[in-house]
Structure formats: structure tokens, C-alpha cells
Fold:
Amino acid sequence: MEQPTDLGLMAHEFWQDPYCTRDTVVETLRSQEFVGLALDAPPAVDLDAHTTVPAVLLQGTTLVDADTLVFENETVAVAVDTVTGDVHVGTFVEPIVLDAPLVPPAAPSGEGLSYSLTATDLRARLDLPWTPSTLLVTALQRDRVSNRVRVRLAPSYEDPAVQAFLDEQRRAMPQSPVRPLPARPTPYYGPTQFNPPVPETAGIALAPRRLAVLGDEAGALVAGSFRLPIERRQVGGPTRHDIAALTGIYSAVVPITLVLLGRRVTGPWVLRMDVPSYDALPEGFDGGEVTGHFVVDVCALGVVPADAQTLFVYAFSGEAMAGPVPMALVDPSSLPRQRR
Structure:
């Protein structure tokens, strides 16, 4: 029997009438004084019967925040393919062009909460491949994070022999090269004073530089440490001497994607990394957890523009997610100067 999802929708209603539960859901969350993002999507999408991947997002925000929030530009969807590791990022709906930056009104709207429900097509917004996959979807907005929703894309009939063949082909794929390539002083993939401790369980720990003065040689650093599961195909060190000279002889490579959102200019900005692990792996290692570190300068790499604002940093890899962690880019002209 078809069961309702978290926002009370039956699976078929995501395509037919995604707003049919809006009044009931808003009334319930208003009574709870809910502030945040609540995401919902059908648990399964038949690739033969449908052409879209619908999702619905309920936003609860204070009236003060609503005065300066542009939902269309500041709400981002992230869909992680939990099998391939691919990460798809885009705004939740079509962004709008503002004639001028939004500024708070002279008289704030006062106390109270505002609610809205918005439906979208994730396939269109994120340019999702129309192939079988399992997606873990999250909505982000500044430093707000929704619940995560799992969506399975599959045809009406999946031939087990075909699926086994595709799994075998995927496992036989060559290991991804390290990216971005290490350089001096960054990117760097060994432990440093900037890296947080490696998580005790599977996950990612982030430690961006809290205050980064633009143009300062210290850099706009995002440091991280991880403990993440890998497959057999991700095991192995460099095969070229020039790469080995840069990276050392690593044992495995782990995909990690950084997503950065701005408080003034939103983005999103994305850095896709393949990070080496130097763990000593036993002979015949066929998959399991590995650990590692990274330090990258997101301004030096051209990931984010060198504009003064506060960024919120997120990281994704398979089932793992970290963030938001704030990092402020500071305009050097705003620093106090001695009188002459």
C-alpha cells in the first residue's frame, strides 16, 4: 500500500498535485514554530513512466530573515549519487536577476514566522543523468540544511544480469587521478596544524580559516580530514613518476566535493576533489574505510570570487556530509590603520 511521505504526499501526488497538503503541513509546522527547511521527494522514480524528478521544499523563516532572503537565488539542491559518487549541484528553482542588492527595510517586519512551499524538478535543475541511480538529496540555504531524502531512479524492469554486468564494469574502471594536483603551499594532502582530527567514525571534518584577509599570503584555506569507505577500484598509487613526485606514493583516492554558499553573493561554488589517502592497506584489500587530509585555498584556486563576504562551507562524499562551517573573506581596506 502506498504510504505518505514526510510532507504528507502520496508518491503519485508529487507529479499530479504537489501542493495538495500545503495548508495542513504549514498549519502543523506553524504550531511547532518550525524554522528551517523540510525537503520531500518520491522514494522511487520510474524512468520509463516519468520524465521528471519532483521535489518539494517547505521553508520556515523569521520575518526578519525573510526581509533579505531571495529564495530563488539562495536555495540550493545537492544530489549525491551514492554508487558512482557523482555530486550534482544547482539552485532549487530558476534564479532571478536583481536590479540591485536586496537591503533590509528601514523598519523590519517585526516578530513572527513566514512559511512557503515550493515544488521543483530536480532532473532539470541539476541536469541529472536519466539512468538508474540512488540519489541522496539535500537542500541548502545559507547556513540552513534540510533533512536528506533518498530517491531511487530505476526502469520498470531491471534485468539482474545487466545490473551485475554494469556493476562489474564500474568496479573495473581505472582509479581517478588526484585533483587538484598538489602545489606549494596548497593544495596539500598531508596532516597540518590546520586540519581537524580525523573522525572516529565514517565522515568528514571541516575547518575553514574563520577569517581570511583577501590578498593575504595566509590564504583562504579550507582544511579537512576524513574517514570514508572506498571500493577496490579506488585502491592504488600513482603510475607516473611526475605525479608520484608531487603526491608521494598514496594508497587510495577518495572523491570529496566542496560546496560553498555566500551570504552576500550566493554562488553556489563547487570544488570537486579526488583526495589521496596514505593509509597502509593490507595485501588483498577489497574495500573498507581509509583516512586522509586536505588543505585547499579556495580563492587561489579560483573556486570563489575574491569578494568580501561570509561563506558557508559544506562537503559531500557518498553518504557523508559536513557543514555548514562559516568562513569570512575580509576586505583588507577595512582593516584599521595607524594615523600618520
About this structure: Residues 174-334 form one domain. The chain is about 15% helix and 35% strand. The CA atoms of residues 101 and 264 lie 8 Å apart.
